[in-house]
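Quick one - inputs below.
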Amino acid sequence: MANKILVAATINGEPTEFLCEPQQSLLEGLRDVLGLTGAKEGCNDGNCGACSVLLDGRLVNSCLVLAAEIQGREVTSIEGLATWQGLHPLQQAFIDEDALQCGFCTPGMIIAAKALLDRDPDPTEERIRAWLSGNLCRCTGYDKIVRAVQAAAAAMRSEVTV
Amino acid sequence: MATPIGASPTYVGNPSLQNVDGADKITGRARYVGDMTVPGMLVGKVLRSAVPHARIVELDVTPALAVAGVRAAITHRDFVDNGPFGWPVRDAFVLAYRKVRYVGDPIAAVAADTAEAAQAGIEAIRVTYELLPVISDMAAALDPGAPQIPEVSPTGKGNLCATHLLRNGDPDSLLAGGQVILEATYSLPHQEHAYLETEGALAIPEPGGGVTVYANCQSPHIARDTAALVLGLEPSLVRVIQPFVGGAFGGKDDIVYQTTAQVAKLALLAGRPVRLVLSRPESMAASYKRESMKSRITLAADSDGTLRAAKVAITVDSGAYASMSPMTAWRATMHAAGAYRYQAVHVDTQVLYTNNGYSGAFRGFGNTPASAAAELAIDELAERLGRDPLEFRLQNCLRSGDCTMTGVRTPGGAGLAACLEWVRDRSDWATKRAAYDEQRAVGAGVDSRRSRRGIGVACYFHGSGLGGEGVDFATARLAVDADYGITLTAGLTDFGQGSRTVFSLLAAETLGVRMDRIRVLRPDTQTALDSGPTVASRASIVGGNAVRVTAQKIGHVLTLAAADLLGCAPERILRSGEAYIGPAEDPISFEAVVDHARTMGLQLSADGRWQVRPIEWDFERGTGEPYFAYVFGAQVAEVEVSAVTGRTRVLKIWAAHDAGTILYPKGALGQMYGGIAQGLGYALMEDFRFEAGMPQALDFDRYRIPRAMDIPDIEGTYIQMLPVGTGQPPVGTGQPGGPYGAKNLAEPVMIATAPAIANAFAQATGRRVRSMPLPLWNG
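Output:
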């Protein structure tokens, strides 16, 4: 309250300024200050990945990053994935493959998958499973999620070739 | 009546169907209770017991009210009669009264401007305890001199919470004459639901003294009725709305009803909205678990492998409160000897209070541990008989026309043998079983010293719906809107299992309209009719049927309107897509028929109700018909056990479920794979342990649930009923009265996984394990 910090960062492509408290996590900053509730709190200790966002393109658990740490940096959350042109191929693939049930892990899962495909456009199933092992899902048994990531990767590769 | 052209359904079983909430969930727009804020909203927080058993000597929340920012603080004194709740036993309290009975038991709650102020308020509450002896072992619960945990013993016998029995024939004489006998005791652990979204509620006080609560419960009407009772309000003044719910698996009943009542009271006292969402460690301590269970099984078979008789004695750890344990224990009793033909079966079950958290509903509802025990025992018996475990099961498994272990003929037939044959053939069972036997016998190869492989099987049956647990009905309401959309209000709810999609497709299919016309309202006690609880995998069957009959009512009205418009008898109307066609073969649109119906003054809204055929179970004698129908399935697991690390890795799982008609194929496979993942966790890593009543893991570091890497390749199928008239013999079986022949599936698909893995472990290591999770193998 007394010692609020002014943070200037690029959030989902938009220059954003906001006030946070020194101890506030990035997850709390996004959800409670900026009203971006797509990233979820599933454990608040870095185990479940429901709060996954990209920080300068790197996958992080936003519950383990301080809001003040993003000063001058870029954050991408699930709200930043779709553009005016439409859904991100991963979002489309999650719909097409029905890779969601309760949906609580879905935003974090899609963000984690994006971080993977940004690095490796053609990952093996094993790599996908290893990469997504920071994101818990209790509903699907992961199978449809792995299929969706494979489908999105294929769609994105064909886009690039075209 | 209107005859569809081309008998094939448009939506039922369509493999391209997608979740109706998909777009909201992949964009982050779906709002869960923790995502909701309203102006002036306060933060709620609960003081919970850190000790397993104690008398509350002093409890004073006035110091909390003195903390800056704290707006309200409550204890049991703020509720009618100190706030008791619970069904079938009313032994729990909204906030602890006189005693705390487990670590996590709520004692008091505050609402404050900020989370920090709420925490300071909690810390300011004065509470002193007189510690009481702790019962952490079921075996000690009935000792003379054991402290009685509940305020009032529901049986009048101290910590004995409930008993059940099953009496079918006289197993004792058969056991005496049986040629091969197995007698063994199996222990199954507590399991945490670990839904990714923890429990929470947001209460908003309303003008006129009422309160609206957004709660992530399974059954909003029960939340409303519970809150109204303890708040002393008419139920009409308490409105409960279910927002998106992040998973439940049976776990969002009692704990969320309790949370609902707490936040409602805080909001009414503070005169401001209050939101309370449990932290993960708080959720893990406070919420109920799958019951731990001991099952002592005696089986007798002839030397030719014919099963003769079974006797089972079950003890269920209910923990501090009854919650659903008396009912999960009843279901366990009805399934305790497995899906086999017996001449006689007796089961005796005791439900015991301890200070180990508390137990309640979790996927499979008592059948998961009961069947796990039975399937381990059947495997051991097959080994004693020198029989292949899968062929032994095929010899004895329930087939259409057989009587179950309760002595009742299976209505609608049994597709279990087809499931066993499917997993046998797809897994190349005989080849692998022989190869892995060889590997164990030889044991000299380099590989077999580093790791061993095994393949195991398990099967199950599962009574459909509530059975003897209660009246099994559901309701729905449909209304054609001004824009020709159709609003569906269902009494049963969707917390991630896909019911909103199933209800939408059933309404569209039955009405013969595009599925995107159907809009499913969020469950709201002010608009939805009470349908009982959303539990027991009954949403698609019972709730789905309610939607179907409601759609039929509206479809009937629309056909009358079309007939009037086309100047023909209703019987002459045909349908093609959405169009209505009369004898003049001039199609008219759905919109035109709706317009005409309105001109005629016909009502285009309807309520429908569907109730399962009543069945009778005599709880005193342990005889009767427990369920109106059963579902069946089988799974094979192939494992590799490392001699270096001792770890068991599942290489592949084959799963088949006798499913009747599959309504929503992608959703159904998701349920199967998700159920298998939970079963794999139950077998290999999930052990919610209590030591002297203290929970040993309250986060995902120490309570591990399966991650993507832990899940093997799964080949799953639903064995569907073949349409009548195909000339082929039926493989799967339909549910008597299920919508479009559908059967239930959400819970049973997890039951076989853990025992199949344990049976594979036994082949790999030569070691029979009688408890779960499986230990590290030490050679």
